[in-house]
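Technical annex, item 7. During the second reporting period the consortium partners agreed on a shared format for inverse folding records so that results from different sites could be compared directly. Each record opens with the tokenized structure and is followed by the designed sequence. A conforming record, contributed by the partner at site C, is shown below for reference.
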């Protein structure tokens, strides 16, 4: 049986991030992707021109429809714009016997806000506690915990602050720091530092969504968290290296890079 992975996230009309990136990632990694749309955005390579969240009852109905009939081996969350959506999705995940990868999306690659300030407390107290892995970038760490990271050495403090809210594992993404792309995965007792060369490529739209979906896909296939995150990091590094221009702004990573890299990949 092909594992089933469910993304609960917003739609990116430009196809580089959100639900679209999640489903492409899942296909590339050999799992069956399913979706719960939480919001619709008007979005392209230049930014987000508009966003409309779906009613909580529509989100809940989509989730129950999929989980009750098909079942899931992993869940991934992305854009949850309001406190009401955050709390409803957290409640649904708590009732689901599957690992959950929580990407606490706060802003888009272009700096557009995708989470209401009033929803932050719900992220801290409702969503993070149900996470198997939480995957904040440094801006999201600051938004959620108040901890600002300016160097690799400060990533431990950021991880501790995130873990204090209850996820089993925290993956602190250090992509905004200079030098190599360094991430820290920890459960508070063991640490895994993941390093990759920084590619000279500005077409990185969708990296966060892609990484979280890749982790969820690997977890659904039965990998332990450290191995799932390492495999996801390797996939995303290749996707960033193959990122391509699209429109007049920031292009997307290439979710299908392995298909074009030859059978040895």
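Designed sequence (site C submission):
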């Amino acid at each position: 049986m092909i594992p089933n992975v469910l993304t609960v996230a917003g739609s990116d009309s430009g196809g580089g991030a959100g639900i679209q990136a999640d489903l492409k990632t899942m296909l590339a990694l050999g799992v069956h992707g399913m979706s719960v749309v939480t919001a619709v955005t008007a979005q392209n390579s230049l930014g987000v021109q508009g966003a409309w969240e779906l009613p909580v009852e529509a989100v809940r109905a989509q989730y129950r429809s999929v989980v009750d009939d098909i079942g899931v081996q992993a869940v991934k969350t992305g854009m949850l714009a309001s406190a009401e959506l955050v709390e409803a999705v957290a409640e649904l995940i708590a009732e689901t016997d599957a690992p959950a990868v929580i990407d606490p999306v706060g802003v888009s690659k272009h700096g557009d806000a995708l989470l209401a300030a009033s929803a932050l407390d719900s992220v801290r107290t409702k969503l993070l506690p149900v996470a198997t892995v939480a995957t904040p970038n440094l801006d999201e760490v600051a938004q959620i915990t108040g901890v600002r990271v300016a160097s690799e050495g400060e990533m431990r403090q950021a991880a501790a602050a995130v873990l204090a809210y209850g996820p089993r594992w925290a993956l602190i993404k250090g992509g905004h720091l200079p030098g190599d792309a360094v991430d820290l995965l920890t459960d508070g007792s063991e640490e895994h530092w993941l390093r990759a060369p920084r590619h000279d490529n500005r077409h990185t739209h969708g990296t966060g969504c892609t990484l979280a979906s890749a982790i969820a896909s690997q977890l659904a296939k039965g990998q332990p968290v450290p191995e799932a995150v390492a495999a996801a990091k390797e996939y995303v590094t290749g996707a960033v290296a193959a990122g391509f221009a699209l429109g007049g702004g920031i292009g997307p990573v290439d979710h299908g890079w392995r298909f074009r890299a030859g059978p040895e990949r």
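The chain has a mean pLDDT of 92. Residues 4-131+203-260 form a domain with the UDP-N-acetylmuramoyl-L-alanine:D-glutamate ligase fold (CATH 3.40.1190.20). All partners now use this format for quarterly exchanges.
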